[in-house]
Amino acid sequence: MKKILSIILLAGLSVNLLAHTEDATAQDVDRFAAFKSYVSVLAQKPVKEWQFIRDYAHKKMNKLEISDEDQTHAKKLLKRGVAIGVAVAALIGGVIVHKGLLRKPTANFEFSNCDVIYVPGFGSVPEKSMLYMDAGVIPTNATGEDFEDTKKKLVIKKYGNGFSYTPHRSRLGQADDVAVIAKQVDAARKKVVLFGESRGASAIANFIGKASEEQLKKIQAVVLDSPFSSLEDVLDHRIKRFHLSCCVTAKGLEKWLAKRVLTKYEPAGMQPINSLENPSDTLKDIPILLICSKKDTEVPYTSSEKIYKQLKESGCQKAHILEFDRGSHGRIMQGKDKIKYRNAVHAYYGKYGVEHVEKFADAGQESLAQTQPEVGSFDRK
Q1: Per-residue DSSP letters for 128-179?
Q2: Cys-Cys with 350: which of 286, 299, 309, 361 at CB 3.0–4.6 Å?
């Protein structure tokens, strides 16, 4: 850290001297020269240390004589290396614990009369469902076994009465992801609640838009957290975010990069906004809750609004949208509005006969009452 700061300061001094060359005094120049010399010594130190380690190892392997001074210095380097190793291990351990990979979620409530299928977002892992469990919005009876479909590179994790799966990172909720959800719905012996986040939410939207009548009849409720209506929406959002709207090549570049990263993505394939265009009568009767944040920098909240508008105009009278003025992508349930998030979801569960915590549901009634706005309120200039 000291070396990095020194280099930054050196750069700052360099810019200052270049900008005020005529005004620079001899004292300024001397200070700059001294500081440059100090940074040069710092930069050479790692090189010298490496040369020492290499020479020391050579002497050790060839059983050559090593001076007491070199022995002492080698011990210092060893202690320093162990200290750095411990610090790095502690940092990695902290990240693992923070991600919840080595712990069980805090128990809040369980489903006994239905299964829950949780589908994480792009780059997430099944264990992220623990964050939703901790938030108290999906059941916490989280034990079970792993299932892996090596052909499609999909990982499905069973959590007691529920399932969680991570699609291959090159897909964005299209046919292969939909097929995995369909497989779990078909295997379920009870009614299911589908709970998805981001790309997982979009995969669920595609699934319910294409599901058979038999599959739809198994669905008790749907929760879609930060879904995108189409990849086009996401790309446009990123272009606006980086103020590149005036650049005619920005969109083409975004699409080119997306194609390189999302190798299995089909531009002409399933898109949630299209999949939900002509819902069946069975789908129209399924409760659907969309959740989004107006501060989402990854997926625009307008995507959720477009899906909600599509559902309402198609006759899905049980569609709801819960919008927050703050909260990052896929983390609303951990942000400042986490209590409102939890209570509103439980109120939604209670309204449609899903198991819930009564006190949470009671506290969320006011929020739920605001989740069915007129679609005209989304029209913008």
Answers
A1: GHHHHHHTTSS-------EEEETTTTEEEEEETTEEEEE--TT--SSHHHHH
A2: 361
Handedness of CA 117, 121, 122, 123 (dihedral sign): negative
Q: How far apart are CA 195 and CA 204, in angstroms?
A: 8
Among 162, 157, 160, which residue's Cα sits nearest to residue 116?
162
Residue 285 CA to residue 251 CA, distance in Å, equals 38
Domains in the chain: ranges and CATH: 2-99 (no CATH), 114-378 (3.40.50.1820)
What does the block give as tokens for 336? Answer: 């400042």
Average pLDDT over residues 191-208: 92
CB 300 within 8 A of CB 233: yes
**How much is the pTM?**
0.68
pLDDT at 13: 44
| pLDDT value at residue 17 | 42
Burial class of residue 268 in the structure, from the number of CB atoms within 10 Å of its CB (0-12 exposed, 13-18 middle, 19+ buried)? exposed
